[in-house]
Amino acid sequence: MRKSLLAILSMIALLSASGLTASQEAAPLRFLCFQDRNECEVYADLLDRFSQENPDISVAVEVVAEAVIHERLSADVEAGAPPDFARVSDLDVLEGHYLNLRPLLADPGYLYKSFPEFIFRSMSSYFQDIGLYGFPDTAKVVAPFVNLSRFEEAGVPVPGAGGEVASWDDWLAALGKVVAATDASYALSVDNKDHRLVGPAMSLGADYYHNLKLSSADLDGLREFLMILTDLLEDGKTPSDTLLGTGKSQEYFVRGEALMYICGSWKVEEVAAQIGDEFDWAIVPNPSGEGGSTGVAQLTGLVAFAATAQPEAVARVFEYLLQPAITTEFAARTLNIPISERVVRRDIDYATDDPVVSAALSSFAREVPRLQFQGIALDLHPLTPVYYEASNIYLRRYFAGELTLDEALSLLRETVAEAEEDRYAEG
Fold it and tell me: What is the pTM of this model?
């Protein structure tokens, strides 16, 4: 009887201990994720592998549409139930609610060595804040698409062939020769929209960014690029409807009518599908000027939330995802451009059967080290949408003949200056 009682008590103790252990098991980290194509699916696979190597940490991936990610996060934060970490397209959208990973990472210096430091500073309203709240996982980079077949037909060498940078003067001269020697209609097609004009303007010397303040005081580079477009327009070498906001410059390129088309890496697969075998094309380095060779980049990234009950676990997940091999695999499987300079200098074996797509994405990746500080920082500034909206309106009116160039640039400067004044007055 005594043995039976002891056995029962032992069993109760064992069951109690088992119950205690189970109750202490950490809940899965909640990862709120949006995707353009398959990013969340690839993250789910990578994180499953992480959990196999780290059985004490699991991650539940919750996928939402990009259109509602920030609305959903704001609602969760307001309700006091944010995810442990999330993928966002606006890195500072919930500034003040992020977890500072700096004291939790084994090597916080690794982040600073992998990405431009101003990316992290932009995620806080305090310039002296040296916290690490997340990291960018992909970049949408702008650079020119060029019709190689037209150059071959005209017997004109492609400027900077072999991935070398060529000047705007060299490109304009070569494009003019090809238009004259073939039945191509246009040298260049570019939409009067947002980031399409900013990269060329920066390459020609425009300066938009000073000490975390958006500025349009120095727009000489934008003026120069607008004059280039004006000259092409007057010569009939660029379509007018794209500059008036009523056309689509991509259509002129894929039909073989325009030799150069300025747009971004997110268009590669679409352009490849539309062109098929009609002609050969490639991505070339951004033409250079006084400001060097630069496009612009729009970032997405992962951010951690301060309300997480498992900050150390989140830090370990981030350290895993930041490994060059993992970052490279993520870029390859999602057909994205990484922003980490440690990764873009590697050969990325993109997961596509189309060698043209793979070559184009690799060319976009090679543009990352050439990006100016402001080529990335502009996308991170909260007033950039104000600049882009004003630019779209005033430059369209300029090309329509409703404003002089001086008037358009003056109105653009005034709009940005007023927005900055209002922002700091509110702060």
Answer: 0.90
